[in-house]
Amino acid sequence: MFHVSKSFGAVQVLDDITFQIDRGDFVCLTGRTGSGKSTLMKLIYMEERPTSGQVIVEGYNSDRIRHREIPRLRRRMGVLFQDFKLLRERTAHENVSFALHVTGVRRREVRSRVTRALTRVGLGHKRNAFPDTLSGGELQRVALARAIVNDPVLLLADEPTGNLDQEAGRGIVELFQQINRQGTAVLMATHNVALIEKLPARRLHIHEGRLDELVPGGEDV
Amino acid sequence: MKVGYAVAEAFRSIRRVPLMTTVSVGTIGLSLMVFGLFLLVTYNVQGVVQELRAKVDVEAYLEEGVRGQALSRLRAEVATIPGVQEVRYISKEQARARFVADFGDTLLSLLEGNPLPASLLIVLTGDQRTAEGSAAIAEKVTPMEGVDEVIYGQGWVERFDRLIMALSAVSILIGLVVSLASVFVISNTVKLTVWARRDAVEIMKLVGATDAFVKLPFLVEGTFQGVVGAAVALVILYSLYGYVSPGLGDIMFLPLSVSGAVLVMGAVLGGIGSQLSLRQFLEV
Question: What is this model's ipTM?
């Protein structure tokens, strides 16, 4: 992200933001609710375009990317939300396979990949469960399985533990670490500083639209 | 594979909002039925008119005493007029026989001799059998030597021509109104199903489904509603036809090609309607 600013009408949400995430990075993005964390995420999966500056993800530049290229970019990343965004009338397996079906993956492949993803998040045994019967932590795991089923290079998690209790939240973060160790970069936005305090991760902080990188000693870079 | 999945998704959606789908199919059915009804009437009136047109002839009554060479010349002259297919001579005796066959011989027996003139029955080619066509031939034949008077079915031919034009215009108008109404109804129904499935649409876009893939199930759904609506319209129309036709005699149902066209029209309208409603949901 190079000198990115984003305004909605007269309101400036992000102001001259520059940072880079490399393969294998684990980055935590902190800041108060409404500080622009979600907007920054949206800029990365290109649901929003910057008012000025450039976002470059996997070789796609926000200035030049064509509308029809955006789906290809999104298949290279996984996105996770506070509210899980699962389809209630579908089982865990169907929710995950949905992501593969709609991107044109062959039926033969879908089954094995979904099973592998659900197993990775520890829900192999609940593949036929419907969302209504799962706990918050389990729901977020299904969403995580859906996000990683495409083997993304980058996992974006927007307040993934916001609706979870401490223990379930910690479980999710542990899964992030496992996934990260296998090579996927993770960008997790949260306002729950306690949760990430002991994480060996880079920390970015948004305050009044500006971004600071914090080093684990407490001082700003 | 893609299409198979889209079809499965479309029917999943239809099952989710059966009432809306029924209302949509019903409205489309009703609209297309009104359209079909007018097609049916136009089609049958056209058939009747065509049949009547075959009977549009021009008859030239001859002056007394035209026979032999004069008659042959006149016949040959009339036959050369473009639009004339055949010229038949009806002698005084034949005219009398024809009159007697039509009206009986009471009237003629009151008169002395045979008052009916000989005539030339001028049979027109198919495209000439209109009000203008027969009038044009009559105009050319009237001044010819030996011709006393020319008659043709001017009045009713004109009236039928006007009726056909009016019916065709009304059919086209109704077709247009029905098309707009169907597109509107389907686009609103699909809008509701898109709304009901907005989570799925959002997720599809997030995980990298192309716009075409997002649209496909809705296209299938709209097309399906359109076809079913059209089929319902045709079935009701056919039942109506079966109920009414014995009383009306020789009326025909829409030929297969036109019925097929109504189905295709339903499909196309459904497809268009569904795509219209999607635009606003697919903005990135």
Answer: 0.84
